[in-house]
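Worked example 3 (structure in, sequence out).
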């Protein structure tokens, strides 16, 4: 096993290179080729011990543990939130996870939909807080709860610069999440037009036909305007309910839940973020074992 002590004793490990093992292209490569050799080779070249007796899944979990200790990049935060919130506090059967979801003019790092809608924006020790000026207004129009997750040493900075409605959470060196300030949960501030643009056409059509009855088939451009007009007549609470249920349904189906549960904890985020065919999923699982 690659222990924390062993990692600490290897000063030449290139942690930025190690972090590349936790990207969509890397997962997609393994899924397409069904082979772990490329990833193992790159991890070894970056200075990480990769014993022959360990599966790729075990190596990845150990590599992420090393990143947690030595290079707390954004992925470390994403993985911790996924495992502590979706697979810990909740369940992947009831809580839906969305990675890098476009919201207005911004892209939220993680969005969780269960009985609530929650945005998690990550600000690591390597990040600037400046973009929050434009990001948080977008998120407050789309989510019932908005939370910034950061390093414990940056608490005061974010308590000062953030809108008071935004919660603050920290990620400790041991991997625990601590709520410093609770988010102000509110649906009245939500913007139906922002919520509408989170939905796929099949989702808003099904929801609005259930509400208003069958609608005419129109060309794409006219269809969008037609359904958008209907959507704007809904109460905000109803628009939020529809959006929440649609986004929740996307990743809580039986196949998706079974798939992400088979992945090592270190690659669960990528499992949600990377579209793969059934054949590619099986190739990936075989390569990980």
């Amino acid at each position: 096993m690659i222990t924390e002590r062993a990692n600490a004793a290897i000063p030449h490990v290139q942690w930025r290179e190690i972090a590349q093992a936790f990207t969509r292209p890397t997962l997609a490569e393994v899924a397409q080729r069904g082979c772990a050799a490329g990833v193992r080779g790159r991890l070894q070249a970056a200075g990480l011990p990769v014993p022959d007796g360990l599966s790729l899944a075990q190596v990845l979990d150990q590599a992420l543990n090393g990143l947690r200790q030595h290079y707390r990049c954004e992925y470390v935060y994403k993985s911790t939130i996924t495992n502590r919130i979706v697979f810990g506090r909740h369940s992947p059967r009831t809580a839906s996870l969305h990675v890098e979801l476009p919201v207005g003019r911004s892209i939220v790092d993680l969005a969780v939909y269960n009985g609530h809608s929650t945005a998690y924006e990550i600000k690591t020790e390597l990040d600037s807080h400046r973009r929050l000026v434009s990001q948080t207004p977008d998120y407050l129009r789309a989510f019932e709860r908005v939370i910034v997750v950061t390093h414990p040493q940056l608490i005061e900075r974010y308590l000062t610069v953030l809108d008071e409605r935004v919660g603050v959470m920290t990620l400790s060196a041991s991997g625990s999440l601590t709520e410093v300030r609770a988010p102000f949960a509110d649906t009245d501030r939500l913007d139906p037009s922002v919520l509408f643009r989170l939905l796929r056409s099949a989702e808003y059509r099904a929801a609005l036909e259930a509400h208003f009855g069958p609608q005419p088939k129109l060309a794409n451009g006219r269809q969008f305007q037609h359904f958008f007009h209907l959507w704007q007549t809904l109460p905000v609470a109803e628009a939020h309910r529809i959006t929440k249920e649609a986004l929740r349904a996307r990743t809580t189906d039986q196949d998706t839940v079974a798939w992400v549960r088979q992945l090592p904890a270190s690659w669960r985020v990528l499992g949600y973020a990377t579209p793969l065919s059934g054949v590619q999923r099986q190739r990936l699982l075989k390569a990980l074992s």
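Notes: The CA atoms of residues 167 and 182 lie 5 Å apart. The chain has 15 helices and six strands.
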